[in-house]
Amino acid sequence: MLFDRVYRLLIGKKGQTQGIEINNLRIQFSIQKTADKNPNNSKISIWNLSKATRQEIEKVNTRCLLYAGYSEETGPLLIFSGNVTFAWTKFDGPDIVTEMELGDGTQEIRDTTISVGYSKNVKSKQVFSDVATKMGLPLSIPNDVPEREWQNGLSYYGAARTLLDKTAKATGLEWSIQNGVLQVIQKGMVTTRQGLEISAVSGMIGSPESKREDKAESKGEKGKSDTNTKKKGTTKITSTEPKQTWNGWSVKNLLLPMVNPGDRVMLKAKAVEGIFRIEELTHTGDSHEGDWQTELNLVDTAKPIGDKKAAKGGAAPQRPAVKPPEVKKYKPYNDGFLG
If I label 207, which of 169, 262, 273, 291 is the partner at 20 to 30 A Cα–Cα? Predict the structure, then answer.
């Protein structure tokens, strides 16, 4: 399927109607996304750019949008949107390779402060909407998520991300930024986007693997617990921090550019069959060699998983069977650099 793969990389500043477009040079990409509130990270390498383009990429707050896919299916779809956090160029024999590290929402999370003062009976959806507007991001939030009302009003001044944290905690929700969109959903549950089936038909590679991770509380290390030893006189007191367990499935598939963390998928394989939530994913590929792949970490939303507790009712496994998304013809960029 090497000949069928297509990509477009747009580079410019937020608010521009036109930017630099790259679609015929060699690129490598590694796109990492999680349902966590911390910015998603990406690394993109490009071969043999002109000096002017290299200089443009290395400017502060340069914005990149990467579209990738298969020409005979959906065409190139947006798989990452973010700002360059670091860029450099190396000379590898006859080749000039420019490498970029990018963050999705890094600038908005880091730099946005907000001052609000609401009168009585303000609702949480209004707060989310106002924070998204202040950040300059579209808001995606289901109509049926739990909502809180502050009867005596609400006032706040400070980092926008802190107000998001407080509002999400008060309503049992979680937030993240996915492809430049502020996504708010019920904690541990799924988005309302149409689900996707993952099976041998979709291009699943190998078999799903059962996955278990222990996360130590104090340092966030996977698979370890922190043991602190204290001396009191001649007595040693040893304490072990509690660990949280994450259970699920790891599955690889040919590139699935249309999925994001928080989406639901139907997994069909000999070892397991059911509907799951995407907790993490990684897109990898090289335009000139190898397969383009998506590796997903899936969790069951019907069960408590570590600190990701499922809400009562409406669990994904009880939903109707999920159908693959309809194939739509690729449309020209309408989200590009328009802000």
Answer: 262
